[in-house]
Design brief:
Elements (H helix, E strand, L loop, with lengths): L17 H4 L6 H17 L7 E4 L6 E2 L1 H14 L6 H9 L4 H8 L5 H14 L5 E2 L3 H10 L3 E5 L4 H10 L8 E3 L12 H7 L9 E5 L2 H10 L2 E5 L14 E3 L6 H4 L2
């Protein structure tokens, strides 16, 4: 169908719902009026505007590198099988769950015992948890614009709430989606679907933000737009092929806000 210079079709009925369609007169005055209204509506609607932002926590919002890394090293030392720092950094860059990481490090070992020792260290060193610079202010700005904030983390809920409370960012979030809330965690797209489901928001209307391959893969597989942060444990974020790369958290604002 031919289009005018503003991109509207010459059919005033095109794109209207059934109830509105009956009210548009088939004459020049009606056509001009319809085009004017459609142009205004097109200006107000921004397809880039997010309805939700789904955040990874560790390495994205919170600097927990030492808190997590040292816990694994502590467990290795306590069992008489020290873990090398380079190996541990590689494991952490994958973004796996605690259980999967320990399965890689200590195949066949009792996970419950490993987890207990892990938490023993972390409970005694909560001072190692802190938000990255600009995180509270950025979350506040996004929230003030009516965008839902949700976490998507491969840590369990109890641990997530503890660190988010410690760092003062829990209050900004509308929802948490943790490892014990889903059957399949990231990089499976189900983690994104589960995070958005309570708000009835489609992945295409959301951004997924993270620093690991698991975050970006999960977001892409779900159909969300993805933003990789460069200050986490995964150094080569460009190789993840995200839609955007940011180097400090406030760089997210011109991307997700209308």
């Amino acid at each position: 169908m031919p289009r005018g210079r503003h991109g509207f079709t010459d059919d005033p009925h095109q794109g209207l719902d059934h109830t509105l369609r009956a009210r548009v007169p088939m004459n020049y005055e009606g056509l001009v009026s319809f085009k004017r209204k459609a142009k205004i509506q097109n200006t107000l609607y921004n397809p880039r505007m997010a309805k939700a932002v789904v955040f990874d926590v560790d390495g994205t919002l919170l600097d927990t590198a030492d808190w997590i890394l040292e816990a694994y090293l502590y467990v290795g030392e306590s069992r008489g099988t020290p873990i090398s720092r380079p190996l541990m950094l590689h494991e952490l860059s994958l973004g796996n769950t605690l259980k999967d990481t320990y399965a890689n490090l200590f195949p066949g070992q009792d996970f419950a015992a490993l987890r207990e020792k892990h938490r023993e260290f972390q409970d005694a060193h909560m001072d190692l948890v802190k938000p990255f610079a600009g995180v509270p202010e950025t979350l506040q700005t996004i929230r003030e614009n009516g965008i839902k904030l949700v976490t998507m983390t491969n840590r369990v809920r109890e641990s997530s709430i503890k660190t988010m409370t410690q760092s003062g960012i829990l209050e900004y979030f509308d929802g948490l989606c943790c490892a014990d809330d889903v059957l399949r965690t990231k990089p499976d797209p189900e983690h994104v679907f589960a995070a958005l489901r309570p708000f009835e928001i489609a992945p295409k209307d959301a951004f997924v933000v993270g620093d690991s391959p698991a975050d970006i893969e999960s977001g892409k597989s779900a159909g969300a737009r993805t933003i990789a942060v460069s200050h986490g444990l995964h150094a080569d974020v460009e190789s993840l092929k995200p839609d955007h790369v940011i180097h400090k958290i406030e760089d997210i604002l011109p991307i997700v806000l209308p």
